[in-house]
Amino acid sequence: MKKEVGIATIFILIIASFSGCIVENENEIPGILIAYPHEGDIISGILNISGSAYDRDGNVERIEVSIAQSNEEYMIWKQANGTSEWHYIWYTPRDDNGIYRISARSFDGKDYSIIFSVNVTVNNTMSNHPPVAGFTYTADGLTVSFTDMSSDIDGDSLEYFWDFGDQSDGQDTTMQNPVHTYPTPGTYTVTLTVDDGRATDEKSTNITVSATLSNFTIASWNLQIFGVTKASNETLLDYYADKIDNYDICIVQEIRDKSGTAIQELAAKLPEYHYIS
Hints:
Layout: E1 31-36, E2 42-43, E3 46-54, E4 62-69, E5 78-79, E6 81-82, E7 85-91, E8 98-107, E9 116-122, E10 135-140, E11 143-148, E12 159-163, E13 179-181, E14 186-195, E15 200-209, E16 218-224, H1 234-244, E17 249-255, H2 261-268
């Protein structure tokens, strides 16, 4: 008896599920460059740090800048202005002279770029030196003459503003060497402020003024009741009245008349003067 052998072919379908194995394109990190300043530059004043950034598979969202002295390890990041073309303002006079590291990085929303850094030296001795205010004065009664003694080692021209302490406001407040007259005796605080266009300085001094005259003129006459100088001589009295205005102090002596009539008649011609017997 012949036996037949059947061969059955079994196809086994194996379905494997590979959930989560879809591979996305890997993000390419952005790039950045500092165009200015350059490595080793000596800088001062206001510095405009500038550069460029790129992202081959997207857009740069922001630029961040860090400025620290070269021996400092920590970094404080601040956002710059712009993206593909960017800049950041650094006011160097606020910091000490020395070597600083300027670092920049870009961010594309997913990754940061490699940090780009340059080292620079801050030397603000080359920039402006502030002026130094100073003045002297001489007083003659209520009038004071001021002499400017201010200086500026850079040779900058200076602008002046005087505060005389009596709430005055006029052309003399901006003169270099003003002369000022105070309304009343007293002590006043005078302040001079000088400005070289980039920095200012001021100097204050208390001054005391009085109505006392440092130089004055004095005259003396005699009046009597008889002779050519008698008080009844109107021409003579008019002459005296006119001359008195030329002197600070006048002494008029009446002789041989205890009543003082001659002095009184002279005083009557000068109503704005005080009669002291």
